[in-house]
Amino acid sequence: MMRVVISAGGTGGHIYPAIAIINKIKEEEPNSEFLYIGTTNRMEKDLIPNLGIRYEGLEVSGLKRKITLENLKTIKNFFTAIKKAKIIIKDFNPDVVIGCGGYVTAPVIYAAKKLGKKTFIHEQNSVVGLANKFLIKYTDKIGVSFESTMSDFPKDKVVLTGNPCSEKAIKVKKAKKEDFGIDKSKKLVLIVMGSLGSRTVNDKILGFTEKFRYKDYSVIIVTGTAYYDKIKNRKFPDNVKVLPFIYEMPSVMKITDLMVTRAGASTISEITALEVPSIFIPSPYVANNHQFKNAIDLVNEGASLMLEEKDLNDNSLIKLIDETLNDKEKIMKMKKNLKEIGIKDSSTRIYNVLKDLIMSERKFY
């Protein structure tokens, strides 16, 4: 049995790996107890309690990159959050405290280390986030998703674990093409622009869906719920299905011949684990351009292709889709390279690191 405090906030890219770690620990040690510490105003505040996991919120915000008075409030909230986190952690008395990214993890892991607790942080992206940079000296072990990121951390702390979303993806049941009303004999192109969708990319792609009408493949476009409301009454070609969301994306990825997607860390972990050939359109609007750097790692390995958003139009995307789908050798090579770099047991690796941390603490006492 483990007693675990886990913290992650802000985006699904941080929160879903945290949930995957919780589920792995539950699978291995069903009597384990969890306390999740997140923000008071981001998506985890509703998502986590709905999963039946005990939740505590801290009022925190990220530092602005330019000099502003708002940063004074951010710093004040940070120290207040440390005090509150210390009270919460001391009361729960965990065996280990885990941070999966987002600025809320900074006061949590810092407080845990000051209380003498074992700590573990996970970096999903190929570019280290500000919170994790700050936490390097306050954590015992650091899991990373990309081999290229290992050099950013001390050798005695860093472990190549992959992203825990990968192991969950493998276990998801495969979907059927018939369930989506598409021809099961045709190849499938899956176009997904992130959990919330991307207005700019959706505008472009949905502006030229008519050009897919006479293609010999089917297309599923996932827009995100907010965007879908704008276009739900539009007519599309019979071989194009437009959906607001897919609850278990890996189930559809398992029947996909080519995926067009953003380059978030969780998506990349699923693509590598399931060996799905892909075209990345990285979001240029994220911190440190980390999606481009996530994608380039796979492109350099010959495991994926990339089309930058500034170059996206009907000709560039459709030409790339057509050329790739019709090149059997290229598809096979991408699958082979994905297999070589993919980590399929990430959650298990992380569980083993946590177990070793806890056992070393218990032996010490």
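Next protein, fold it too.
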Amino acid sequence: MHPMLNTAIKAARRAGAIINRASLDLDRLQVARKGPRDYVTEIDRAAEEAIVDVLATAYPEHGFLCEESGVQLAQGQAEGEVAEFQWIIDPLDGTTNFIHGFPTYAISIALAQRGQVTQAVIYDPSRNELFTASRGGGAFLNDRRVRVSGQTRYHDALLSAHVPGSGGPMSTASPFARMLSECASARRMGSTVLELAYVATGRLDGFCGVNLKPWDLAAGGLLVLEAGGLIGDFDGEQSWMNTGNVLAATPKMFTQMLGYLQD
């Protein structure tokens, strides 16, 4: 295992311990709003600080892109310059689930080298499930190699979505309406990083998301690719990390999902 991946796992487990302790006493949790239906807690911040502390101690010359604290430039990095190494961190994806005691949330840590993600860790502390990937080295769940599902029939596919209307009634004019209505069933889990990890392990056959952030996508995107899946924007191109508009699925499901959107 790559030493940088080992360090990321150590950081994820330390943050997971903070989250698990807090989950035992949610009534004492301090919750603030960052925007409509967008929450942050002191646990998000504490978990992020723990992750950055582990990584910065091991690699003081690396930069960071974190959901809560934003960009921290690497040593010698100029504003606007791509860092040689940058850690992309979401300390608690699924905060709304967490504050309700709904155990579907995860920690996401990715390492980008010159803008290309090379290492990925997603850790689900409530289930003690650790998803990892190194570029060119495959995807793993708790040290067991995983692959995307072998599903070939769209009408039998289980999809997940983070798109306008997927949390409630969706307009029939939505470009996603037909795509999601013609599969076997669609879910909205409330944690994009877990949804991508579940595509990588075959628990989901595909995922569609809109207006997501790099920390939502970096680690999960590498997991999907290393598990044999495809990931792209709504034109099938590779701008998804910049636009936040993403399809991730098995190769056969990806083609069919893309077809629905382009129709």
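About the second fold: Residues 146 and 201 are 5 Å apart (CA to CA).
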